[in-house]
Automatic annotation (TrEMBL):
Membrane topology designation: Single-pass type I membrane protein; Single-pass membrane protein
Organism field: Dermatophagoides farinae (American house dust mite)
PANTHER family (UniProt xref): RE50040P, VESICULAR MANNOSE-BINDING LECTIN
Domain L-type lectin-like: 25-248
Keyword presence, Glycosyltransferase: no
Name of the protein described by the UniProt record: Vesicular integral-membrane protein VIP36
UniProt record, GO biological process: endoplasmic reticulum to Golgi vesicle-mediated transport
Amino acid sequence: MICAICLLLIKSVHGTHTEYEDLGFYPQKEHSLMRPYQGTGMTIPNWDIIGHTIVSSNFIRITPDQQSRHGGLWNKVPITFPYWEVHLEFKITGHGKDLFGDGMAFWYVKHPMQPGNVFGSADFFWGLGIFLDTYANQNGAHAHTHPYISAMVNNATMAYDHDRDGTHTELAGCEAKLRTAEHDTYIAIRYYNDTLTVMTDVDGSGEWTDCFISNGVYLPTGLYLGITAATGDLSDNHDIISIKTYRLETPIHLMDKLDQRAMIIPHALGSAHPRDHIDDDHSASGRMSWLRFFFYLFLTIIVLVIAGVIGLLIYQKRQEVSRKRFY
Ligand SMILES: [Ca+2]
């Protein structure tokens, strides 16, 4: 039974952000992270860190502003509810004026704590990745400029193409001037009713701005939240200040189907199909063999028609000869 209060218009206040949503927002402590980060020991309750990540009293530095660093901050507890919203306060800064990188990623994936080459985490992931890509690897080849935020939904079959900034597999994206020390910067990731919405507040306004809304996004329950970042030849400080996770009201029609949500294979109806050169060659050679087949068929018909005409002429000639002989 849905409690009456859950159906009320709920006002949610997130730091400086004030939102009115026709949704229930239920803060989830075990999926959130706020100062002071550390409990009684050196560990962070419910969170693990890997790589070059360090914890200070004011922020968690996923990578320092040094070359060839990678790090990660991973939630230890899987998300068990279908719909959620995460508000991430982050800061990307560094000594570089024009050249800096590589960026940061937000994850909702099956396998946490796996270092790799996608902003510090493993490729061929199972779930959702949101990339805050500060460096244009393929500069001039995109219709957008960097920093650029993009989303990718993967069922462990696709590779993130770093050299092309992931444009071949991206679900949606937006430009965002998210690299600044001037003011606080935030990103909100909402997954509700199989729709993925990403919003930013990177201009110090305290208001959310839509980055993109993508319908038809299917993500299972039981995956893990994480943040990773990486530097290469170029570098930046990639810092996390806070993570606030909310459970969103589960729609009534899903109440008796919650077990099935865990079985979903991650996919998105709006995803760009990965461009596979081998498949392209196959389809080209497929077209060629069809063309060849029709060419030979046409040639065979011509030959048969000519043979038929010649046969008919020979037959008529013989008939004529035999008639002459008869008379
Ligand atoms: Ca890039």
